[in-house]
Amino acid sequence: MKILIFNWRDTMNPSSGGAEILTHELAKRWVREGNEVIQFSSFFEGAKKHEVIDGVKIVREGTADARYLWKSVHFRAFFNYQKKFKGKVDVVLDEIHGLPFFTTLYIKERKIALICEVADDLWYKMYGFFFGFLGRVTEIIYLRLLYQSIHFLTISESSRNDLLRNGIDQKKISVIPMGVHLLGLKKLPPKEKNPTLLFVGRLSKPKGIEDAILILEKVKKNIPNAKLWIIGRGDKIYAKFLKAEIKRKKLQNSTIFWGFISEEKKFDLMSRAHILIVPSIKEGFGLTLPEAGSVGTPTIAYNVGGPRDIIQNGRNGIVVDPNPKSASEAVFRILRNDKIYKIVQAGARELVSKYDFDTSAKSTILLIQKHAK
To answer: Within the chain, which residues score under 70 in pLDDT?
Structure first.
């Protein structure tokens, strides 16, 4: 089967996240099974326009920001389909991040949608009132009108429920099993001497990095030697703002920006930190939770879609009201109670066994074969 994936970013993009990891992990396994996979995604500084990664053919053109209209990856996907792909693929996977590729309007081949999360109020958080309003209205229109005939794949019950609330028929939604890429450290290193919090993700408002800084500030009132490690990259201007905020709060000696690092280094830091904090206002799933759990680091997360589908509160992690005060109180509580910490730590390690990318890839390709229209 020849599969064409439209996705705003690929796994090499500096702004890529868990959704891009999922897409690539599925795609490379489909290639191993004898399928041909082409992914059309946005171009980024320093990228190659054409590249093969793990057997997946990557084509890059346009920007991920739809506000650039005809220069956006969404418009470029339409033009490239007409010139290069029309009549030459078996199925198109339309991956939705806020906006779809509107494949229902022009693609004749079989198609199916993959959506990790419905953006909903994230539009306003990301783009302000004007563009946020336009984005949210567009989302309502395509979900309720343009995409009623297409089948949706999603990654959590929370995302499934969001689709239902936005008018998608429950018969047209399938939740795919998620996988986790694990490094498999043979021996876990000891935890840091100082209580260390860890944030892993894109440096963006929806991921809650500003709340992570506030959580550290509040934790330090009770645990003065607490530290925060930040793994991830994002917009340079926003990163500069964050560092200025940390300096303003006099937290620069308690905070380390690790930036974009190797998988080996990421898992090493995960294993040495005491707690992963996930202050996102919304997640489709949250790959970092089982990743951290695999190396003995439990999670404290906001009670939002994604984390609440993964965490059994008090057993393999802690979910709290979505505010820094609640999160900081939970951090203090489990760091000061060794019994509670060991319970959630053990539960977090057990959690990992249920997530497997091989199973996810096999299940997803079967769903595509069954439901793509």
So the answer is: 184-185
